[in-house]
Structures are given as C-alpha cells and as structure tokens.
Structure of 5-methylcytosine-specific restriction protein B:
Amino acid sequence: MVDREQGVIVCRAARQVVEGGVLTGESSFASGLRAWTPEAADELFRRFVENFDESSDEFLVKLKRQISEGGDAAIVLAAELLYLNVMPLSPATIGVNRKFEILDSVLSWASFQVRVPDALAAAASPGYMKGGQAFLNYRWAQFAFLIRLTRLLVKLPLDERESALRDPWRFRDLAESVLTDYDGKSRARAQFHVLLFLLFPEVFAPVSVERNKQLIRDAFADRLAEPTGDFDRDIYAIRQQIEAEHGGQFSFYDEPWRSRWEPPPPPRPQKGWLVRGANVDGVNAIPLWLAESFCSVSFSDIEQLPAGASRQQVKDAVAAGLPDAKQGSKDVAAGQLWRFLSGFQPGDLIATVDGDAVYVGTITGDAYYDDSAGRGLARRRSTKWNPTAMSRQTLPEEAQAKLKTAMTIGELTSVIAALATGAGLEEQLTDEVLAKDETRGLIVPALTQAFADDLLMPLDWLQETADLLTAKRQMILYGPPGTGKTYLATKLGEALAGPDRTSLVQFHPSYGYEDFIEGFRPRLGENGTIGFDLVPGPFKNAVEAAEKEPDRPYVLVIDEINRANLAKVFGELYFLLEYRNHEITLQYSPDEPFKLPKNVFVIGTMNTVDRSVALIDAAMRRRFVFRALAPDRPPVDGLLRRWLERERLPVLPALLLEEVNRRLNDPDRAVGPSYLMTPDVATRRGLELIWAAELLPLLEDQLYGKLDDIEARYGLPVLLAALGHTLP
C-alpha cells in the first residue's frame, strides 16, 4: 500500500473513466470519440472473448493479433479497460514504465495518435495497491471480464446505468454476473475486487485477494452481532464501527489493525520446491501426504538426522550410509537431503506431481522423523496441502519444464508463483518470489513511427522484423557489406529492450566457447603464483542480467556471427536455443543447472560475401530466423537517396551507387549504402577519398581474380562519365 492521498487520486481517475464512458459513451483518452458504445463493446467481445487465443504467446502479442485490425473505437475502449486493469497497481506488481508500455502499444494500433491524458497518467504513477500474481498471469481473464461487464453496462437503459453507478451493491451484482470465464472458472476475481474498491472506495476495502477479505472478517468478527457470510458487507459494517470509534478513516493495512489479520511473513526469502512422492520405494506416497498433511523423502539407508543439520553432517551420514556409491551419487544425495532438512523453511511453497495431477501446499514446520509408516516415509515436513489438483497441461510452459526434473527434490522458485496462483495460494506469495517469476508475460513494446523515420525504413518491415524476433528469439540479419546490419541490430535491440539491456559482441575465427560462455582465466596470486578463475563470458552475463528482470527483454547482438566456428562457440547451447525451458549443465559448471531465459533475444549479423546462408550449419539455420538486407530490396533499396534528401545533400552519390551495383549484377556482392551515408559525399574531395580508400579496395577484394583492372570499370571518373555528371 502507499499513502491514502494517492488512493483518492487513483479512485477518482477510475471513476472518471468508467462514469464518463458508461453514462455518455465518450472516451476519456480521445476527445470526441464515442468508444463506450454497444457496437465497440460487441466488437471487442467478438475479437477477444469469443476468439479466445490458446497459444502460449505473451498477452500483448495475442491481443495484437485479435484486435489491432479492429475499429478505432474498439481499440481505444480496449486501452481504457486495460488502464483500469494496470492503473491502480503498485510497483510491487507492475512497474510504472511497464504500465505505459502496455497502454501505448495498444493505442498505437489506432489510425490516429492517442495518448493517455496527463491527469490520468499521473494517477497511474506509481499506483496504489498490490494486485497479486493474478494480475500477471491472468490479465487475459481480467480483460475479458472488463469487456463483458462493459458490454452489459452500456446496453442498459440510462436510468439503470445511473442506478448501477450510484448503488455499490447493485454494481457488485452486475459485475459478479459476468465473472465466469469461458470454461466456468472465475480467474478475474482479483480484478473484480479491485474494481469494486476503485469505484466505491467508501464501501469496499482495497483488498484484491478474496482470502484476505476472509482473514480480515474473521479477525474482527467480534465486532459483528452475526456474520452474514458476505465478506464485503461484513467488512463494511466493521469499518463503520472502527471509523466511528476513532473519528475518521483508517486502513486494515495500518497498525495495529494489520497484525490482527495478516499471517506473519516467512523468516527468510521465500522459495518454491518440488518433492517427488509418486514412487517412494515402489509406493505412491502422495495420497498419504494429502490425507495426513506432510511430505517426505526416503534415503532409508541413511541414519536419522536432526532438523537444521549442517552440510557436513549430511555428507558424513551419506558417506556412511552409501559406502559403495560413486562420489557423484553421494554428492547428489547429500545435496538433496540437506535441502529437505535445512534448506526448506516454514512458509516455503511446495509442489508434487502424480501423473498429470499437480498438488501445491505450504511447508508449516521443521523436519521431523516418524517411521510409523515405514522408514521410506520417515523423514517428514508438516505441509498444508491444497487437496484440489491442477492439470500440469494447463500450467505455463516454464512450469511444465521445471516439473520434468528427475531429481527427488528440485527448486521451483522461478515458477512457484504460477503454481500457487492456480492453487489459490497467491496471498502467501512474497514480493521477492513475484519478482523472480519467469512465467510473467514478456511485454515487447511496439515500434513507433518516429523510430522508423529515424532509420528511414518502413515501419511495417521493422515491426514485422521485431515480431519475428519476439516469436523465434533468435534472428540473423544477412546481406552484403554496408547494408547497415550491425546498426539496425543495435538500434532494434535498444528499441525493444533499452540501451542498458542491449550488448554487442563480435565473433572472429579464434573466438571460442570459453570466450562466449565461460572459461578459466589466469590470475596472478600471492607470491607470484598463477591461479585460475572461472569467468563468465558475454552470453552468460546477459543471461544472469536477464534472470533478474524476467519480464524485460535483453538483447545480445553478435556481429559477424558467421566468422566463428559456431558449433565450437555455442557448444551445448545449441540445445537451449531450441528448448529454452529446459535446464542443462555447462561443461565448466556441472553442479549448477543452466537455462536460457525466454527474455534473452539474440540478433546475429552475417556478411554474405564471407559465407552464403546456404552454407550455414543446418542445426543453426533451424534455430534462427533469417532476415535479408539487400541494396536492391526494401528496406535498404533507396535508403541512400532518402538519407541524402533528408540531409539536403546532392543525389549524385545515390546514382553512383546504383550504377556500381548494376555493373556488379550480384546481390551477394552488392555495395550497401552506408559507405556513402556521410556528409563528406557533398564535396568533391570527400567523395574521391571515399572512392579511393573504401569502395575500390572493397571491390578489389570481392572481385579478386575476376577483373584485372577495377579502376577501368568502377573508378569514379568512369562512372561519372557513364552517368553524364562531373564533380564540382
């Protein structure tokens, strides 16, 4: 929560958007546009709700497919509904910049320029309340709910619309009537609770999680003559009593009220764990776990150990219990057992898998020993399980991949938020776990016309390139020298990820795995001794940075990617380029699982003079999408002429370049425009120097052995004469 004054601003902004739209039909974003109409709501309903997209793409990618070709009214209405969705959320749920990336992307699909008005934008910065995991994983369901509710409201007679906006309980009934998703579930309940508060803050508490409403009601039930079973009405009655006693407004999130209802936080950063129990010494232990509220691991050959045992204690016990095992197996067993005894903490979340069924619970106590059901089930942790199973097929791909580990115990912290949300345990998630949640949708901002104008390239081609990169995650820009491959790759990365999240590395023939991923580097130690440190390369550095912000793109540009031995440089990463949700071990870090996050984009550049695309290894071709940059095809065709016109320079250099490429008559050896995209071409001396020092040496290299006298065919005087021009 933030200060109460910000809450007033947020609620006032939400009321303005909804009341203005429902009562008048007018847009709050685009003056004079009637966006809150039955026609616009019906169009959104057809395009988004009825045309449900079950693909694994990010929310904004799917939304663009569904509504970007719609009418302006429907697009602006969609942006205003998404404003209601993201505007009230604090940075703990979604950052301010991310809010406007979502809104600006949607508004960019309209046929005219629309922006969020300053007053409404100010209300969204920084927001007001923590929305929980549902606002990250179920935005599609919340958006669909807002569409259904808007469609219902705008079709009511005016007097009924006015009544709904005056009567909070009438409004709640209308909203609840459209809360059910297409499959009978209600994934938008958090949005439902937030919307009630936004529009009627004097009646509804600023609580997004229904479980928290129950906790509040139960904690203050002594103030009720008789609970009604309606959390909202009971909390409203409790609020009235407390406000009357204390002479003004208060918040259940302030002390001394908060500590009465909110469970205490876990003692250290929360983690998520997988514990396998479907085959414990040939027996499925999961039904017993669920019935008796515990989880367990076997290791029946190892002596009893106390809760909180040190790593060394566990290693010694494993060595004694498994004397004939290989050292690697002993190390794995010791690590697994130590995690269970000492790594797990009360408050951590835990999952287990029984075929397709996934169960999630909360660890509630320290490790203990109980062999009443046999030694295989003796090492236990008290666990409060949600007895309702989820199908693993309905989980995000990242979570499904994590559940495939063969280990008895595996860490699930990066995906546990999605599992907990599906199990109704989202109120137990901490901000630290939410920040590490890699199942959050990756929002890639739409490219702008200003960006395209700066590059002098068509926006459609650039956006299509960005969409291809977003879908495949790996792209190679290829073409002859001077076509701007590296410049475009860098600018595209900065537009999608920002300059701080874009890095560049250049490959060369001696570049290897140790340079790119990780390798040992010599270090001068004390007394002149030489030691070696394991040093991460640019690829691993990019991955580690991307893991800290799983919802932001990170772009690694590999310049001249084809000059290195790709199989040697990438090594086992060939696999991860295609299967990003899987974990592997790197050859120099065998004890640390490594994966390639979905938010790492790779853009390679390749000169076709050096190597044809057809000669690239088939495995590499399958893992990359290729995009050509050729002087005779868009977007490079005519680029030099457009640049000269923008800079108000003579068009002669463009004519010379066109004549050179006409004579070469070879797309792979054509000369790109960047050699001549300099103010020096405006002077005789400058053009002569570029021709003598850059273009002729390039042509001599490309035509080596094919043409004896380059000057006679491609010299500047020869070309000027052919064009009928002279230099001033």
